[in-house]
Amino acid sequence: MTLLHYAPGSAHSASVRILLGEKGIEVDLHKLDLIHYEQHSAAHLAINCHGTVPVLEDEGRKMFETFPILEYLDEIHPDPPLAGNDPRQRYIARKWGKYVETHIAPHLAITRWAALHGKVPESAVAGLSNLLPARCELWLRAARGFDSKQLEASTQAMLTAGRRLAADLAGNDWLAGNAFTLADIAVYPHVAQLGALGLPVPSAVDDWLARVAERPSVEAIRKDLFPVAVMGPEPGRWG
Fold it and tell me: What is the pTM of this model?
């Protein structure tokens, strides 16, 4: 049995679901409610002590990190191949997978939290002690709010991401060249949120976003991509 624990509004969850759609893989789905902090419930923490989504359970194995999940699914379901057609494409895909985790997702979490005037309710704050210390501190930091210096740094980081995307898209339809790969899948659900946050992207990136949005795998989950009601860092995810 393969089970995906996911949440609407989670860009990382969306990446895994897009890959499942691209490959026609059917899995059982367990939806978590981020609005009411179900990802921090005792039941979910028993599955993933980090209190994040997505989590993939496959034949007794639990996997928590998004890009390795994408690579795992691509390897065990090789048709169509999405890791890249040659070593350079595979390098570019992994480069973007890492950049999402270390740069795009953390800064998007901060800018989105601030834009939505996020506030952790007292009832949720009490439950944060169930998280691992590093995760708890991230949420407590969000509860305290971010100063203008941090918000400006995160805004500039997202603008830098747009320029780097445009550089890889120069003369290409897709981030790794002539093939739609894990790079596009990993990046799209995050960068597609920038317009709603009032952050501009280069025209090449805007055109790329439109191309990705036309894919049936993306259209199939559109209603779960960016539900307005979702608040908090988890849609971008820190760490």
Answer: 0.93
